[in-house]
Amino acid sequence: FKPGTLTGTAPVFSLVPPGGAGFDPGAGRLNPSFGVAYRIPKGGGFLHWLTGDDAVLRGGYSLATNRQGIGFLDGVWSGNQGRSLATSTSPSTTPSVFTAGGVLFSDSSYPHLAPTSIDSAFPNPSFPLVVQSGQGVEDYNPSIKPEYVQSWEFGLQRPLGRNTVIELRYVGNHGTDLWSAVNLNEVNTVENKFTTEFQNAQNNLAIANGISLAQLLTPGTKLTTNNFGSTGLAGQVAVPILQTAIGTTNDQTTATQLTQGVVGTTANGIATNATRMANLTKAGYAINFFQVNPLNGGASTEMTNRNSSTYNSGQVEIRRRLAGGLQVQGSYAYSKSLTDANVPTLRNWGGEKGPASFDIRHGIKATWIYQLPFGQGRSFLSGAHGVLGKVVGGWEMAGVGRLQSGSPTNITSGRGTFNSGDGGIVLHNITAAQLQSDMAITHTSQVGSTGSVTGTVYLLPQSLVSNTLAAFALNSATLDPNAPYIGPCTTAGQLCDHVFYWGPWLSKWDVSLVKRTQIKERLNFELRVQALNVFNHPNILSPGGTATGGNISSAVSTSFGQTTAAFRDFNNTNDPGGRTLEFVARLNF
Fold it and tell me: Please, which residues have CB within 8 angstroms of residue 511's CB and are 6 or more apart in sequence?
């Protein structure tokens, strides 16, 4: 953020030497891990009520580094310009080279695909390569260090009778020096006084239209002219940066941006436009007037140790071993997972602490097995033998259940009121807590001409959604300033609030009915019927979300407050989300 200071050099790309490391992996780091367990002596009175006859205190701590692999290296460097050669070959794509059937590529007698679209020196072209205009530059901070996480736990376990124990735990961790890709080309609107000029242009535009600045920023206000320059009217001043860069003071796009207060968007539109930047530099403005690495559209990304994270949770777990035909394990966790990965500006290097995408505040989980009390060795019909004994014995019910709160979504405005990033939103006539309490699933439906039924799933009240869209001028409704709504940040040079809401709860219960029939001492036949999501409960998610976290942000658009996402998992468990019946027959020996 030093326009006019030109002590740097234009970036170039150089080859990484063979055997060169992308970063220091931190060999020789000490990663301690230790734990302790203490069996509490039997006591009397309140102590005995609290600990029972055989309670144990447990605790532990560990420090572990996370050493990234080649995927991270490739993910950074592959974003840079350079040489490439397609090596994919098949009879369909290169019929003149290969015939149908497999070939042994190491056999030199077979024809090979010659590099025709690249210089003959590949893979050793001449270096360094000069960065072309519009191309990004990505690299590591030369002093980058491995990430590391500290974890700790402390808990009390005590028996509840002969077969059951309860455990109370506190579990936490802290991630430090986490890697983050930072764009050093954050557009500058402060030191170059561009915000001041933008505000002058706003004032000029309001005067030209005969309205106040507040009216100019009011959604739905119609303009009679787009001229934001000085036309000699009282109160107007010159706007030389805008006029020089754009070449006019009567630009409709810029006028719209002035009504929205998006100074960062306007600055970014100049900084990433070669023609407009050329206009400025010809007039004597510094090449780095807006960006530290002025590549006219290219990012300047550095992978560095910037982020940290915290996780804290209180957990309760009850375990009953298989006794009397019943085995149960259940737990509840209240947790909070936070990160400072939200970096609205490099001026605040510490970022803004907020929930991580997988911040699940409440989680209830249970598994159980219940052997029905019929047949030999059970409470009922224990004397049944022969066919009757085979029929009534060996029945079992089992299940797995999960009930947990939703993942967070950050409501964004999509407007750059400070830089090209999101400027945040403003809550009107409603608090963040009230917004969360209003989160509930509602449905609308309509029947089409062909008899098909379509509908919309809302996560927020439709009245709030409609008034919010009016504040963003995204519908034809008139804004009600006295009703609750979410409005954009409209003050040029300002960052507004980052507000989160947590999506719907997820409820999923899988049960199974099992029948085992003993054939011989070491052979039995098992028939199992399993119902996944037995209640066929649709688990609605926040837009772009998943059951364990998801898209952390959602910009206000015409689909604001709506969702088309529901839980399903085809990547791992092939779970379609709805009720699924499975029939399994097996011989166990």
Answer: 397, 398, 399, 530, 531, 534
Output phi, psi for 277, to 5 deg: -70, -35
Structure confidence by residue, pLDDT tens digits, 98-109: 554 555 556 666
Label the pairing between strands 147-159 and 164-183: antiparallel
Place of tokens 């509908």: 455
Q: Which among 313, 319, 404 is positioned nearest to 367, based on CA atoms?
A: 319
Which residues, 6 or more positions from 95, have their beta carbon under 8 angstroms from its beta carbon?
none
- Write the CB contacts of 332 (distance below 8 Å, at least 6 apart in sequence): 315, 316, 362, 363, 364
- Rounded to whole angstroms, the Cα distance separating 287 from 294 reads 7
Whether the CB-CB separation of 79 and 138 falls below 8 Å is answered with yes
pTM: 0.84
Q: Which residue has the tokens 């055997």?
A: 19
Cα–Cα dist 577/575, whole Å: 5
Tell me the three-class secondary structure of 416-482, residue by residue: CCCCCCCCCEEEECCCHHHHHHHCCCEEEEEECCCCCEEEEEECCCHHHHHHHHHHCCCCCCCCCCC
- 9-60 confidence digits (pLDDT tens): 888 888 777 777 667 766 778 899 999 999 988 877 777 778 878 899 999 9
Of 53, 50, 55, 52, residue with least CA distance to 40? 55
SS3 sequence of 192-229: CCHHHHHHHHHHHHHHHCCCCHHHHCCCCCCCCCCCCC
Tell the residue number behind the tokens 């029929």, with chain if given: 391
Tell me if 378 sits within 8 A of 325, measured CB to CB. Answer: yes
Within 10 angstroms of residue 351's Cβ, the number of other Cβ atoms is 18
What's the one-letter identity of residue 148? Y
pLDDT for 529-563, tens place per residue? Answer: 999 999 999 999 888 777 776 667 888 899 999 98
Other CB atoms within 10 Å distance of the CB of residue 73:
16
Whether the Cβ atoms of residue 4 and residue 286 lie closer than 8 Å to each other? yes
Q: What is the 3-state secondary structure (H, E, C) of 349-394?
A: CCCEEEECCCCCCEEEEEEEEEECCECCCCCECCCCCHHHHHHHCC
- What type of residue sits at position 416? G
**CA-CA distance, 536 to 559, in Å (whole number)?**
27
Mean pLDDT of 397-401: 96
Q: Of residues 46 and 142, which shows the higher confidence score?
A: 142
Nearest 5°: phi and psi at 382? -70, -20
Q: What is the mean pLDDT of residues 169-197?
A: 94
282 Cβ neighbours under 8 A, 6+ residues apart: none
Closest listed residue to residue 262, CA positions, set 554, 465, 496, 470? 496
Q: In the chain, how many H helices and how many E strands?
A: 11, 25
Which region among 258-262, 270-274, 338-342 has the lowest average model confidence (pLDDT)? 338-342
Predicted confidence band of residue 96 (pLDDT cuts 50, 70, 90): low
